[in-house]
# Entry
Amino acid sequence: MPQGPGIITATVAIAKERAGRIGPGRHPRNPPPNLSDDAPDVYEAILLAPGESKIDVEVDTRLPSAAIFTFRKEDHTLGNMLRQRLLKTPHVIFAAYRVPHPLTPEFQLRIQTDGDITPRQAVVNASEALIKDLGILSREFTKEYELRKAANAANQQQQNIVE
# Structure
């Protein structure tokens, strides 16, 4: 899809509207954020620009079976989770991440494996394991939330009977 200065994709339009930059009038109690003209748009921190890749891989030639992955539009949250999961993997010798600049939404993940699997495969395996773990966390949280809600409703009903 061609991208020009006047063309806005649906995703960018939605992100701008949610950020309070365009869209219908806002309620007086919720004025749009006061952003200066030189400040970057909020949605630029989460949406990839046209032609921008999410992940770049650079083979580290100084070490065997090592690579540096650059994740764009991500931060410490994903970097730390991936690093922790990679360090639990038996074939990973080294895993660390760094954020080159705090105002740039990207991090670099350096991985070295023992050679039985590639660094790329280690990242894929760690990502799949994280997705599985987060699914379990979501289900457990939802289950606990529903149990608490039911218990609170029962307590409320019991208090109404006593009164």
The domain at 39-161 is CATH 3.30.1360.10 (Gyrase A; domain 2).
